[in-house]
């Protein structure tokens, strides 16, 4: 009788141990599968992702958000940020980039805050930027200000900004970069995402940011 009782107890203990180990293995597999994997250097290069070894602090600049309020550099802190320098009358790269970012944002669990920094403040008032961005994604934020301040911000990112022509015409283009600027959750310049930008590519890059 005692032998049968010991055998039953042993079997229950063995089953409990096996069940516990199985649960732990399943949990580890789930964690590995669901955790974003860091991109290799080759993968990052193919996607156009450039990350600095040491993110660079940004100097304060007088800027205005699309709400018409002053924008402090501290607004970039607390989350990753994607900045794009463009303008609302841009015929191609700007609307294409905003549409791509909006699509990725709609499908993502987490996504950096998106900012459109105008290179054409003569036409792009705060209200113009707000109306333009609402067509793509109401969470996107516009930045305007004096052209000298916008160029000072672009210089910190080592990005070119063209000169708006001296004309009374409302139809003119302004040169600008097609790269996305990465600003980390500490408000520092962390790198770039070079064009062309695709939904799949940006999804991979955003997943990688969560692993940093």
Oligomer: single chain
How many individual helices? Answer: 6
Named at the architecture level, the CATH assignment of the largest domain is: 3-Layer(aba) Sandwich
Poorly predicted residue ranges: 25-36
Q: What is the CATH class of the largest domain?
A: Alpha Beta
Secondary-structure element series: HHEEEEHEHEHEEH
Rg, alpha carbons = 25 Å
CATH-level-4 superfamily name of the largest domain: Glutaredoxin
The average pLDDT score comes to 85
User: Order of strands across the widest beta sheet?
Assistant: 1-8-7-4-5-6-2-3
Topology:
Blueprint: H1 2-34, H2 41-47, E1 49-56, E2 63-65, E3 70-71, E4 81-86, H3 93-107, E5 113-118, H4 126-134, E6 141-144, H5 147-156, E7 180-183, E8 189-193, H6 199-209
Parallel strand pairs: 4-5, 5-6
Antiparallel strand pairs: 1-8, 2-3, 2-6, 4-7, 7-8
Write a structural description.
The protein is an alpha+beta fold and 212 residues long. It folds into 2 domains: 1-35; 41-209, Glutaredoxin, CATH 3.40.30.10. It contains 6 helices and 8 strands. The longest helix has 33 residues, at 2-34. The radius of gyration is 25 Å and the shape is globular.
Brief sketch in words of this structure:
The chain has 212 residues and is an alpha+beta fold. The chain has helices at residues 2-34, 41-47, 93-107, 126-134, 147-156, 199-209, and strands spanning 49-56, 63-65, 70-71, 81-86, 113-118, 141-144, 180-183, 189-193. Strand 5, helix 4 and strand 6 (141-144) form a beta-alpha-beta unit.
């Amino acid at each position: 009788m005692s032998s049968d009782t010991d055998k039953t107890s042993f079997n229950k203990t063995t089953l409990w141990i096996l069940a516990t180990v199985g649960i732990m293995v399943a949990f580890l597999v789930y964690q590995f599968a669901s955790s974003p994997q860091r991109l290799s250097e080759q993968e990052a290069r193919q996607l156009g992702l450039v990350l600095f070894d040491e993110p660079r602090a940004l100097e304060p600049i007088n800027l205005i958000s699309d709400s018409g309020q002053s924008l402090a550099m501290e607004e970039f802190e607390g989350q990753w940020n994607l900045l794009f320098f463009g303008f609302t009358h841009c015929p191609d790269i700007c609307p294409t980039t905003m549409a791509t970012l909006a699509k990725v944002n709609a499908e993502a669990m987490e996504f950096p805050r998106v900012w459109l920094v105008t290179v054409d403040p003569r036409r792009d008032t705060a209200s113009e930027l707000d109306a333009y961005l609402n067509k793509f994604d109401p969470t996107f934020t516009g930045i305007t200000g004096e052209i000298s301040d916008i160029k000072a911000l672009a210089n910190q990112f080592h990005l070119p900004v063209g000169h708006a022509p001296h004309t009374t015409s409302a139809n003119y283009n302004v040169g600008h970069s097609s790269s996305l600027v990465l600003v980390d959750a500490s408000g520092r310049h962390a790198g770039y995402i070079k064009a062309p930008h695709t939904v799949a590519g940006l999804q991979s890059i955003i997943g990688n940011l969560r692993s940093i």
